[in-house]
Structure formats: structure tokens, C-alpha cells
DNA sequence: ACAATGGGTGTGACGTGACG
DNA sequence: CGTCACGTCACACCCATTGT
């Protein structure tokens, strides 16, 4: 968590906000992806914390929602706690230990990169120059979605829900217009709804909760780090927790000339789909 | 090498709801 | 009721990959 939160928000304020969110959660208001209730919650929160800047409330709300979802994920191997219990124990989070939360923030946010190599691979999408013969398409440059943008999209989806492309564009994916986000969402939901093992890996296979594949306690061998499971096994919406693209360890760093992150991901995915595993020297190359 | 296929991006038409 | 803004859908176009 941003250390600034320590200065901007007191523990009691954070606790209160969590309680409010939990209340809405208990009423099925958050993260069910079916409504625009996220904005309702924000309105209430902004009214409740009227002395705070709007962006402060929004930012903390987003942080807490993601954290709470992550906390629930961590409890997946345990009986699901009742929401009332979550309210009482701060959703299993240790609010008094923000440093620990900060340490896990990337995990909470679904970043697959605790090492910077993966980030380097995905932070810039390939800017393909496409010859567009039609007049209307002249001078148009195709801009591909980065994984980071897609994750921001997923976060916005969780907060604002489907259809609030304007809000998502304004608050989460500022590099894309609402129309572009809508178009991206169209393909995203189409992919979710049409699972087939023949599909290649795509940006839409990246979920918000891609996390922890690199953790040694989760996989005793490098091969287990290659746990791809795209949307084909996902029956949930909005990049749900069941959807993982676990790009284990440093496996994407296989080739110096593999400039395109998308291509790298596609390549890696294809190796898995085809049942052919990665050469071991590539798999462990990043650890050299 | 070539054709087929899958996938990504952008555009236009249409539907819908809010507002005056 | 008309207008406007916005979202959804279908489609075009293109690229990358795969199969032959």
C-alpha cells in the first residue's frame, strides 16, 4: 500500500471504510459485476468521508476492494467466511500492518511480476504499423492493449461494473477512450463466453488475479510454475479468480530477440496448448 | 510457399435511456 | 416527443500462427 495512505488515512478511517464496503458486500453490492453499484458505494463513501478529496476516497476504495477480494482468494482453501465475520475481522487483513499489505500489493493487484523482467516484457505493447488502404483508416495507428492496461480494465470492471466505460476510461484506463474500452470489453466477454481449447493465448486471458506463480512454496519445481489456465476453464465473469494465466517465474524471458510481449506470451501459450513444454534451459534462463 | 484459421483493433449502425 | 449521449453488436481489415 502506498505509504501516503498512512498519512492520509487513519486506521480507524480505513476500518470504517472496510465496514461500509463489507456492508455493501453483504448486500451483494460489490464485485458481483452485475451492476453499477460501485458508484453508489463511492457516493456513500465520499459523503461519509466528506473531508477527504474525492480521489483519495476513490483510491482507497479501489485498494480495499482489491485487498478484500485477495483476502477471500486466500481463504479459498478454507470454508468461506461469513461476511459478518469479515466485517468483524477486517476481511482477514491486518490493517495495523500496512507494510505487509504493501509488500503484497502487487500480488493483490494481480501483477505477475515481482521480478521486473516480466514487467519489462509487457509494459509496452507492440506498435504495429498497419497498412490501411481505406481512406477512413488512413493515418490511423493500431494501438494494442498492454497487459497493464488490461488489468486496469479489469479493475475498473470490478469497481464500476459492465457498461461504465466512461468511468473506467476516466479512472482506470486513461490511455483508452470509452469506445476503445467498449470494443476491448466486447472481445473480452466474447472470449469468456466461448471457451475452447483451440484458442491461442490472448491478452484477454490475463486475469486480474494472476498471482503468486513464482512463489516457491506454491510449486516445488519449475514445471509446476507453468500453470496456464486461461478463460477456457473460467465460468466466471470479469477475470474472476478461477481464471489464471500463471506465467511462472521467468519463463517469458526466453529469447533476447522476442521483442513483442504479446508474441512472447502467445509463443509460450502455444507451447503449452500443444502439449509441448518449454525447453528447460529456457525455463530457467531467467534464473541464471 | 500458400491457404486456412484464430485473434486484435477500430468503425458504423442501431438500440436505449436520460433530459429538456 | 425530439435530441443527445452512450453502450452493444456486427463487421471489416489486418496480422500471426498453423497446416499442407
TrEMBL record:
Gene3D superfamilies noted in UniProt: Homeodomain-like
Keyword Cytoplasm belongs to the record: no
Domain (HTH myb-type): residue spans on this chain: 137-193
The entry's keywords: DNA-binding, Nucleus, Transcription, Transcription regulation
InterPro entries noted in UniProt: Homeodomain-like_sf, HTH_70, Myb_dom, Myb_dom_plants, SANT/Myb, SANT_dom
Xref: PROSITE patterns: HTH_MYB, MYB_LIKE, SANT
Domain Myb-like: from-to ranges: 137-189
Pfam entry (one): Myb_DNA-binding
Domain SANT stretches: 145-193
MF terms (GO), sorted A to Z: DNA binding
NCBIfam families (alphabetical): myb_SHAQKYF (TIGR01557)
Record-given protein name: Uncharacterized protein
Lineage of the species this protein comes from: Eukaryota, Viridiplantae, Streptophyta, Embryophyta, Tracheophyta
